[in-house]
């Protein structure tokens, strides 16, 4: 049975700053408006620092994914800042996110450009306006967990954006990496990271999306290039969600068989893209698999300045777009310029789902636990 979070309505604008800070460290619970009633939300306390490009807390947090709870009730999770070349292990312990230090908890994703252990071949001949050999920033945008063992063991996946840099138009090879991180729940340890270029093969050959692979993004809201913003695992498939393109109000999720991505002897053949009916200029910001087989879809502006209200939705990847339902419209982030950027599933039951959502902009990603009402899955 899921622990239902309490809902205490608090107007943050009426509280002094020192009290807000104290509430944050205590895991304060307060109401946020939503489409399906009033969901509860809890701002998680941070023990340690989520590391970013510079010294101090990360301000470009772009994703989070958690394994199921260990017997202690704690969850092992991975977070990423899109300006660095590593991911960071964190532990969700009730309403506290324990980050530790970079020295003890960083998970190296990038190695070197000529690393022979990276599976597949680096994509070349792309249409990005600026070509560089930079291999320092992953532009990590998608994180997912695949449970493969009865004890909760499995694999974390971390994906770069696989597109030209949004503002500079640079082609940075480091952004075209997908990594797999084994996780042993019995020992609570990670195994050796495996890296691959081969997701680019799937993007290059995909219907609708293929002609846009490796082309510059259109920051005016057009349907120029593509970039990955979220991933999830559905059985033996990687579901790849795109912030761009949005074509006439359609956003895209590309199912790709997982096995060939980390092998060398099989061709990587993507399935037909799933087309989700969204608003114009609304893009996918993250995906997360649920226990009942559905996938959460966090949406928001495709171009940064688009006037689009963020939403949390869900769909059944075995049915497709016809199963898409809106769970809630999300309130505007409190920090100027902040964006909802990542979501991870925690638990569901009693017609409700519990998640953690992180933001790009605030220090440490402002991780917040929400509980939403959710329609039952269609049989």
Automatic annotation (TrEMBL):
One Pfam family it belongs to: DUF3616
Keyword Signal: yes
Domain DUF3616: 199-368
Keyword Signal: yes
Keywords carried by this UniProt record: Signal
Stretch forming the signal peptide: 1-31
Record's protein name: DUF3616 domain-containing protein
Source taxonomy: Bacteria, Pseudomonadati, Pseudomonadota, Alphaproteobacteria, Acetobacterales
């Amino acid at each position: 049975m899921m622990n239902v979070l309490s809902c205490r309505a608090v107007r943050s604008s009426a509280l002094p700053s020192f009290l807000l800070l104290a509430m944050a460290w205590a895991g304060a619970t307060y109401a946020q408006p939503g489409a399906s009633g009033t969901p509860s939300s809890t701002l998680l306390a941070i023990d340690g620092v989520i590391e970013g490009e510079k010294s101090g807390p990360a301000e470009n947090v772009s994703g989070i994914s958690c394994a199921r709870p260990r017997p202690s009730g704690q969850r092992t999770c991975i977070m990423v800042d899109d300006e660095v070349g590593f991911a960071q292990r964190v532990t969700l312990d009730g309403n506290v996110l324990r980050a530790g230090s970079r020295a003890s908890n960083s998970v190296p994703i990038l190695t070197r450009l000529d690393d022979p252990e990276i599976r597949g071949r680096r994509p070349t001949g792309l249409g990005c306006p600026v070509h560089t050999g930079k291999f320092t920033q992953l532009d990590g945008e998608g994180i997912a967990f695949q449970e493969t063992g009865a004890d909760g063991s499995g694999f974390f996946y971390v994906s770069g954006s696989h597109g030209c840099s949004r503002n500079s138009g640079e082609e940075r090879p480091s952004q075209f990496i997908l990594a797999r991180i084994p996780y042993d729940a019995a020992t609570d340890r990670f195994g050796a990271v495996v890296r691959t270029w081969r997701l680019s093969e799937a993007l290059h050959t995909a219907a609708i999306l293929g002609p846009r692979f490796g082309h510059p993004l259109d920051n005016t809201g057009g349907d120029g290039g593509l970039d990955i913003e979220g991933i999830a695992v559905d059985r033996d498939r990687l579901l790849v969600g795109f912030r761009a393109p949005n074509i006439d109000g359609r956003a895209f999720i590309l199912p790709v068989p997982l096995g060939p991505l980390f092998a060398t002897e099989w061709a990587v053949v993507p399935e037909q893209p799933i087309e989700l009916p969204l608003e114009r200029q609304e893009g996918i910001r993250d995906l997360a698999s649920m226990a009942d087989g559905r996938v959460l879809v966090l949406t928001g502006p495709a171009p940064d300045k688009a006037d689009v209200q963020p939403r949390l939705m869900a769909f059944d990847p075995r049915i497709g777009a016809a199963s898409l339902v809106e769970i809630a419209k999300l309130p505007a982030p409190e920090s100027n310029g902040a964006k909802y950027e990542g979501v991870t599933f925690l638990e569901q039951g009693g017609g409700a789902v519990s998640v953690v959502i992180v933001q790009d902009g605030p220090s440490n990603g402002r991780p917040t636990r929400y509980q939403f009402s959710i329609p039952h899955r269609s049989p």
